[in-house]
Specification:
Elements lengths: L2 H7 L5 H21 L6 H13 L1 H11 L6 H18 L13 H14 L4 E2 L1 E6 L2 H13 L4 E6 L9 H12 L3 E7 H5 L2 H10 L5 E5 L15 E2 L2 E5 L3 E5 L11 H6 L3 E2 L2 E5 L1 H18 L4 H7 L21 E7 L7 H12 L3 E5 L3 E2 L2 H12 L3 E7 L5 H8 L2 H7 L2 E5 L4 E2 L3 E4 L3 E5 L3 E2 H5 L1 E9 L1 H15 L2 E4 L1 H5 L3 H14 L3
Parallel strand pairs: 3-4, 4-5, 6-20, 9-16, 12-14, 13-19, 14-15
Antiparallel strand pairs: 1-11, 2-10, 3-7, 7-8, 8-10, 11-20, 12-17, 15-21, 17-18, 18-20
């Protein structure tokens, strides 16, 4: 018997209605076969088709609501215009700063990144790495207090609490003395934290300007796919002093008494930089600010008026051990249909000769990234993956576990960071010359649904410092071996595999 006919036969409909429903159901399924795979990765297409074919009454509405991973309408126009402004204003700039030499393989990656985002490699000064929550907040607070012209704060999650109050107080004080202070915060990303309401209430009667990123307010005509997020984390002071990384502006236990009681705290990393590269961070902020406020500011205003950014100078070859740092900012997200972060990760790993070190709290690779990582291990590269022993999200925790067997069989060394701490740093290190730090996880959400920001770092003290941070993580981990992993209970494997399937519903 046909399952669809069987199912409809029991419904209390006249024969004509039953036939119409059956024809409609098959029409929807046939249309889905031809429409769902368009510009979509095979794994995501298969997952959506399974839902639509087996439970169309649920799958079709879900696909219409969540199936498009791209922004459309006004936001798409803004992003396209911003890319055009970047490209025109920076078209005469070299892809690599004057005086900096890099190998041909690295240069092709820098050129690819520029083609995808319009942003060339920049000179800059590495200042410090901040791997302690309190130390990072103290450094950012000091930077805000030193501001003369403007402070731009863009963080996914923000909360006024005991650990962040000094930072936000410094921001208000800066605004009150005449510094322009602008704040961008993801709407749904912060809404669940009690300290977010306190933050908005305390900013309300101050000169601080604040806008929600990707707000959901259907009554004001602001509706979009509800699971899109602006996940970026940046602080820019006076266009010359910047912080970028994985840390949110919230206390280390994320406002949860239960987390505090269990000792569960988030372990993050922020990089502090100065110089030319910070101008590009300011430019990305300006685009995001314009997206939410329709106000042209700062670097974006310079570009619209044709004012060039001040070019810096550096000398030496950072990929050959010379003491010089070069940087390239790589924004990504639904506004970029070419997945710049994923392409950068795969190309860097593909060119590694000796060592690859990956730190990701949410590791759910697509097929291209998984093949690139395992291929690197098979050709003799020492590949290490650092993940939390227990991720803070149930489905993500189980989905990433489903990839461990393939990684271990290829020779990838997996280190699980001690529980109950949550290793939240996002980092990639290639040999001894290159690294990436920022907000992007190595998962399908970061590749497709989140607005992310990554900083590619070449050479200098910065990469050495990043390796030292990973060495410190290594001391807090336990290794995972294939025999132990293969011996885990069957129910856990089942949940892992189900979570892997649902993770592809992009």
């Amino acid at each position: 018997m046909n399952p669809a006919v069987d199912r409809l036969a029991f419904l209390p409909f006249p024969d004509g209605v039953t036939s119409a429903l059956l024809i409609t159901e098959y029409a929807i399924k046939i249309l889905a076969l031809g429409m769902v795979p368009e510009n979509r990765q095979p794994a995501a297409s298969q997952a959506w088709l399974l839902v639509i074919l087996f439970i169309p009454i649920v799958g079709v509405p879900l696909f219409l609501l969540l199936g498009n991973p791209y922004i459309t309408g006004r936001r798409h126009v803004i992003q396209a215009e911003a890319n055009r402004l970047y490209e025109e204003a920076l078209e005469k700039w070299p892809t690599v700063p004057d005086g900096v030499q890099v190998g041909p393989g690295v240069r092709t990656i820098l050129e690819m990144n520029r083609n995808l985002t319009a942003i060339p490699c920049m000179s800059g000064e590495f200042v410090a790495l901040h791997s302690d929550c309190a130390g990072s907040l103290a450094a950012m607070t000091a930077a805000v207090r030193s501001a003369h012209h403007h402070v731009h704060i863009e963080f996914y999650a923000q909360s006024w609490d005991d650990e962040t109050s000094e930072f936000f107080t410094a921001a208000i004080e800066a605004a009150e003395r005449g510094v322009t202070v602008r704040v961008l915060v993801d709407h749904l990303g912060s809404l669940r934290y009690r300290g977010f309401k306190r933050l908005r209430r305390r900013f309300r009667h101050t000169p601080v300007e604040i806008h929600l990123m990707l707000p959901v307010n259907p009554f004001a005509g602001r509706f979009r796919r509800p699971d899109l997020r602006n996940h970026r984390k940046m602080l820019i002071v006076d266009g010359d002093h910047g912080f970028i990384g994985s840390q949110n502006l919230i206390e280390r236990h994320y406002g949860s008494p239960r987390n505090t009681r269990l000792g569960r705290e988030w372990v993050d990393l922020m990089m502090e930089v100065r110089g030319e590269i910070v101008k590009e961070m300011d430019g990305v902020f300006a685009v995001d600010w314009y997206s939410e406020s329709s106000e042209v500011i700062g670097t974006l205003e310079q570009l619209t008026r044709g004012v060039p950014l001040a070019a810096g100078r550096a000398g030496g070859d950072p990929t050959a051990g010379d003491p010089v740092s070069a940087f390239q900012l790589v924004p990504s997200g639904p506004g970029y249909r070419t997945q710049p972060n994923l392409r950068m990760f795969t190309q860097l790993i593909g060119q590694a000769e000796h060592r690859v070190r990956i730190v990701s709290p949410y590791f759910i690779p697509d097929e291209s990234l998984l093949h690139t990582i395992t291929s690197a291990a098979y050709r003799g590269v020492d590949v290490e993956l650092f993940v939390p022993e227990h991720a803070d999200q149930f489905m993500v925790h189980h989905a990433q576990r489903s990839y461990f067997r393939a990684l271990l069989e290829a020779g990838v060394r997996i280190h699980r960071f001690r529980s109950p701490a949550v290793l939240h740093t996002k980092m990639l290190l290639i040999d001894s010359y290159g690294g990436v730090v920022g907000s992007s996880n190595m998962d399908l959400r970061s590749f497709n649904l989140n607005f992310e920001i990554s900083l590619l770092v070449l050479g200098g003290e910065a990469v050495a410092g990043l390796n030292e941070v990973v060495d410190s993580y290594l001391r807090e981990t336990t290794p995972l071996d294939l025999d132990t992993w293969q011996g885990r209970p069957w129910p856990g494997r089942y949940v892992d595999n189900v979570a892997r399937l649902t993770s592809a519903l992009q």
